[in-house]
Prior knowledge:
The structure is a single chain. Strand 2, helix 2 and strand 3 (78-79) form a beta-alpha-beta unit. It is built from 3 helices and 4 strands, in the order αββαβαβ. A two-stranded parallel ribbon has the order 1-4. The protein has a two-stranded parallel sheet with strand order 2-3. Helices cover 45% and strands 11% of the residues.
Amino acid sequence: MTDTACSAAKGGVHAATVSMAMELGETGVRVNCVSPGAIDNGQRAIPRNANPLSAQEQEWMKGIYTQSLRDTPMNRLGQMEEIAAAICFFAAPEASYVTGQVLYVAGGGIG
Length: 111
């Protein structure tokens, strides 16, 4: 996905979050969004491609990893548990007055 397409998609989700929160607020329905940054999800149980990566693909993956770290002020990948904790916060009673929010869980990046 290109940066433009990704930015447009994320912007749409963020705008829809705010819009739905405004429309549904009086019914008691809360609408929030978690916007994760680069996440270390380890090895896939079922690889996308069963064939080993070519040298060109390995270089491409290394470039993506390097760019992700460069764009993350905390200079590390996030953990799946950190995303889950943010989602659990929105579902918890402590967040009962929170709606229309985008929570960036992205190490200081923009998610």
